[in-house]
Amino acid sequence: MDAIPAYNSPSVGTLGIITTPDQSHHWGIPVINSDLAAYFILVLSAFQWTLIFISHCVLQRRYVRRRPFVDRPPDEYPGVTIIRPIKGIDLNMRHTLQSSFCQEYPGPIEILFAVEDPNDPGIDVANEVISRFPKASTRVLVGKDNVGINPKVNNMLKAFDQAQNDLLWICDSNIYTDPGTLRRSVDLLLDNKRLGVIHHVVFSEAPTTFAAMLDNAFLVTNHCRMYLAINAFGIASCLMGKSNLYYKSALDNVGGLASFGQYLAEDNMIGQALWRSGWSHTMTGDLARQPADINSLAEYCSRRIRWVRTRKYNVTFATFYEPLTESILLGVLTSWALQHLFDYRMLTTFTTFMLCWFSLDMIFFYRINGGSPQSWPWFVLSWICREAMALPLWFVAIIGDTVVWRGQRFRFHINGTVDVLK
Question: Which EC class, in a word (predicted)?
Fold first, then answer.
């Protein structure tokens, strides 16, 4: 009689992967241990909730209890050159540009407006604002230096070259800052000689369209929350270029502004270069306020896709991890894990998860905004729609490599550089 072949029982390998000889031989596909996967998901979920908790702590410590001015002699404050790149007309542009002239700063301030096109209508707005402050040291610089494909770098380079001060404050034309922002920022630099970059979190305000409300729901909750939490760890560079202070000499030591003209996300690359050279980053309790100027759903989607595609080649790991920072996907995974391991009802768990997430987002918005949303029903609707759209927009963004910015189309390379498409 022929011998009965022995049954090849499954064996658990490393990392909880179960394989059988037959499966490995015929299919070559490992089977993931579902218990291990569930525990791993719970660890990720706990990590994300920890980041949310940290962001609320940072919000309370830095933004609700804003740091007072340091009492030091005025002559200890260095001169600062504020550079405002201009292209076209922004919403409430007079108000945003004027905020540079209203800074309560004891030291000398130079304000440079950088414009590429001599026929740009933004020149008239800048000159109108300048006329209100005849004693201010300010100039409008017109011209373009073709050092790369990044139009913002090409526009700003002349201002960098002509700046009279080593300490620069790069502030986009659509950004409004409170009068004490510059002084609090310089106080931090003077107190810590290893600080090389001061940046401010972006805050969208006064949305008037539903698309602008969607953008507001993103910037003032998910984006702001993650931005504060990541920077609280201080283990890597994480900044946006809306409002940044750094030393021109430090930037020159890492190649100068012109060397970053090959990147579309020059702000991120500058931050990484300064970080690698030993200059740490921090934030004050001030906001870079920008008017909510998105008019259509297509414009909102285009902006979100552009952000993801830009980050995909500069901060790859963070970009691919991003879906796990969104409530719906993480809520579904967490609910499944709790059902699988502890027999919790998945629908009940998911509902509780989403209600807790929304409540903390609402509290975050209320505290950083200093008050309630203009319209609770509209905020709730925009929050729900923003959360529902996040993952589909991420998928669309991750499979493409072109973006449209300021009327030009760009294609990304894997090293983060871009080409202009005709």
Answer: transferase
